[in-house]
């Protein structure tokens, strides 16, 4: 963009407007993109394909199952820990 602006200045033309610069760099189809300013729009992606959606759904279900298993294991570990604490407390009171 800077090169085009300098080229216009060096050749004695009026400085190019932002719209003219954008059209020269990005092509005729341009729009404003948040954070990028005026620029060519990326091609639109089609909605997620059924295969991709199915794979994502399967991964989600697998993750849910793993989470549930982990939560069950955690609860069992907490119960074992509490039982161990109770046993230690009983043993300690017997020694005293």
Automatic annotation (TrEMBL):
Disordered: annotated span: 1-20, 67-96
Biased segments, Acidic residues type: 8-20
Low complexity bias locations: 67-88
Protein name as it appears in the record: Uncharacterized protein
């Amino acid at each position: 963009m800077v090169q085009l602006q300098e080229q216009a200045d060096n050749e004695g033309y009026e400085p190019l407007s932002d719209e003219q610069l954008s059209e020269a760099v990005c092509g005729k189809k341009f729009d404003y993109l948040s954070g990028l300013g005026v620029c060519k729009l990326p091609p639109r992606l089609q909605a997620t394909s059924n295969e991709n959606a199915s794979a994502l759904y399967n991964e989600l279900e697998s993750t849910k199952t793993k989470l549930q298993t982990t939560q069950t294991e955690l609860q069992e570990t907490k119960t074992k820990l509490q039982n161990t604490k109770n046993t230690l407390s009983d043993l300690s009171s017997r020694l005293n």
